Amino acid sequence: MAESNRKTQILKDSSRLFRKRGYTATSMRDIAAELNIEAPSLYNHIKGKQEILQILLLDLAQAFTHGMNTINESSLSYRSKLERIIKLHLDLTILNPDGMALLTSDWIHLEEPAFGEFVKMREGYELSFRHILRETLKKEGKESANIDLALFSILSTLRWLYSWYLKNPDINPIELEKEMTENLLSGIFNRK
Amino acid sequence: MAESNRKTQILKDSSRLFRKRGYTATSMRDIAAELNIEAPSLYNHIKGKQEILQILLLDLAQAFTHGMNTINESSLSYRSKLERIIKLHLDLTILNPDGMALLTSDWIHLEEPAFGEFVKMREGYELSFRHILRETLKKEGKESANIDLALFSILSTLRWLYSWYLKNPDINPIELEKEMTENLLSGIFNRK
DNA sequence: GTCTATAAGAGGATAGAC
DNA sequence: GTCTATCCTCTTATAGAC
Questions:
Q1: pLDDT in tens, B148-172
Q2: CA nearest B16: which of B96, B118, B136?
Q3: CB-based contact A46:A52 (threshold 8 Å)
């Protein structure tokens, strides 16, 4: 992941710039300027702009897939698994908010085969999420709810959490987790 | 808004392309190709690429501001106003899903003074939303909730609804409204 | 590992014929 | 109102000196 110190620096600065201006609108000169070097110097550390995007996105998608696998393989109740998934999103958001922004918007600019790998990982993730959500709803006798719409609501909020976190970086993570779990799950389970 | 037929066509095709590839990654040649003309011909109808973005975004922001004003000036209860705001989002999403995508992501690429106007309108809108949400929570004795986080959750879901709608265009709008209102408001009001 | 110079191409936009 | 030709700038990336 982080061979040299310089490469780590490039990846970090790139993700921040990509988050702020978008991948396409960020130039190699912009990235280089952030490191106080000239653009061609970047190519001693990375193959090109596309490689930066691929590393950033695929590493993060891996972290999500790995986290979901761990939850899936556990012996927790479905409801607890659901809470763990929310915690997984929160943890990764606090650890890497810039990366989360790319996951939400700049993944479209991935080129093949990275694009296909990314979409496949995301689909697998959402399928697991959907399964756990459906089983939880079943156990709580709420089979009537529109699962896809509920999943979509939860994912939308979790995906945009990075922007909220960037504006409120001082929040207590445990408080945040408590509030988010309430907001997201009560909407589905505590209907009148 | 729509002086000539050609201009309307340009705006419509542009918003679809911007939604799919992003503003920066869409070229004037791409837009022209969609209309089966050459890029320079576009300039007989619009001043440039930036003008297209500005018309699309400011018109839609206007629609939101106007809708919110109408709700604010009404004599409805706060809870009913909240439901009307959700309906406003749903209506505009169904009417113009491509535009909603720009509202969520491509507004960063607006240049001044359009950028400032847009941000000002959005801030006013969110302030009204926040006020109505707070008053509703107060009336229902739920003052403990984190209002900003609740507002953020609701807005995240509403802003991403366009992507869900594009994948599920056959849903009954009334059914959608009912489900969304349940999902979004129960999470805040029906906590155990 | 960083630099300067530069290639090769894409993009927004204009001029002027028809 | 659309076209072809063209300008100018920005962009990614490479070559080769230091």
A1: 999 999 999 999 999 999 999 999 9
A2: B96
A3: yes
Of residues B110 and B142, more confidently modeled: B110
- Show Cβ contacts of residue B65 under 8 Å, excluding neighbours closer than 6 positions: B121, B124, B125
Q: What is the model's pLDDT at position A140?
A: 87
Q: Classify the phi-psi angles of B17: left when phi > 0, otherwise alpha if psi is within -120 to 50, otherwise beta.
A: alpha
Question: Is residue A2's pLDDT more than 70?
Answer: no
Tell me the pTM. Answer: 0.96
Nearest to A179 among B22, B108, B146 (CB): B146
The conformational region for residue B95 under phi > 0 = left, psi -120 to 50 = alpha, else beta, is alpha
The confidence score (pLDDT) of residue A43 equals 98
Residues of A with CB under 8 A from a CB of B: 20-22, 24-25, 105, 108-109, 145-146, 148-150, 152-153, 156-157, 159-161, 164, 168, 176, 179-180, 182-188, 190-192
Give me the number of domains chain A comprises.
1
What gap in Å lies between CA B129 and CA A56, rounded to an integer? 35
Structural domain contains residue B162 = yes
Question: Among A156, A180, A185, A190, which would you mutate to test the B interface (most chain B Cβ atoms within 10 Å of its Cβ)?
Answer: A156
Q: For the domain that residue A151 is a member of, what is the CATH number?
A: 1.10.357.10
User: Residue B15 CA to nucleotide C18 C1', Å?
Assistant: 32
Nearest to A54 by CA among A3, A15, A94: A15
Read off the pLDDT of residues B49-58 as tens digits, 9 standing for 90 and up. 999 999 999 9
Q: How many CA atoms lie within 13 A of B177 on its CB side?
A: 16
Is B152 within a domain?
yes
Tokens encoding A104: 């939400």
Closest residue to B188, CB basis, from A21, A152, A183: A183
Domain span at residue B75 reads 49-189
Alpha helices in A74-110 (DSSP H): 78-95, 97-104
Does a structural domain hold residue B181?
Answer: yes
| Nearest of A192, B7, B140 to residue B150 by alpha carbon | B140
Is residue A10 a part of any domain in this protein?
Answer: no
